[in-house]
């Protein structure tokens, strides 16, 4: 299963590394990543392979909590749901 991870917050060193390391703890493979910084605001979108994640809900909760602890907004969504939300 693929998932979309989005991250938004004030730019600082190490955000990408922190999120990638957290993914690695759950054996999540990052397939694609796009990030940009606009006027000090960091935004990142990752497409990930979560096929080895045993409990997707726990992974999503862990990532969102990690975001809160670091003053970031982190969202994790099954790509099928993401695609359905953006299909007319």
Automatic annotation (TrEMBL):
<dbReference type="InterPro" id="IPR050990">
    <property type="entry name" value="UPF0237/GcvR_regulator"/>
</dbReference>
<protein>
    <recommendedName>
        <fullName>UPF0237 protein BO225_03610</fullName>
    </recommendedName>
</protein>
<dbReference type="InterPro" id="IPR022986">
    <property type="entry name" value="UPF0237_ACT"/>
</dbReference>
<comment type="similarity">
    <text>Belongs to the UPF0237 family.</text>
</comment>
<dbReference type="InterPro" id="IPR002912">
    <property type="entry name" value="ACT_dom"/>
</dbReference>
<feature type="domain" description="ACT">
    <location>
        <begin position="4"/>
        <end position="79"/>
    </location>
</feature>
<dbReference type="InterPro" id="IPR045865">
    <property type="entry name" value="ACT-like_dom_sf"/>
</dbReference>
<dbReference type="Pfam" id="PF13740">
    <property type="entry name" value="ACT_6"/>
</dbReference>
């Amino acid at each position: 299963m693929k998932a979309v991870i989005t991250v938004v917050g004030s730019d600082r060193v190490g955000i990408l590394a922190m999120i990638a390391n957290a993914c690695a703890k759950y054996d999540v493979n990052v397939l694609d990543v796009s990030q940009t910084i606009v006027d000090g605001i960091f935004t990142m979108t990752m497409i990930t392979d979560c096929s080895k994640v045993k409990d997707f809900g726990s992974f999503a909760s862990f990532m969102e909590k990690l975001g809160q602890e670091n003053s970031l907004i982190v969202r994790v969504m099954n790509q099928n749901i993401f695609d359905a939300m953006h299909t007319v």
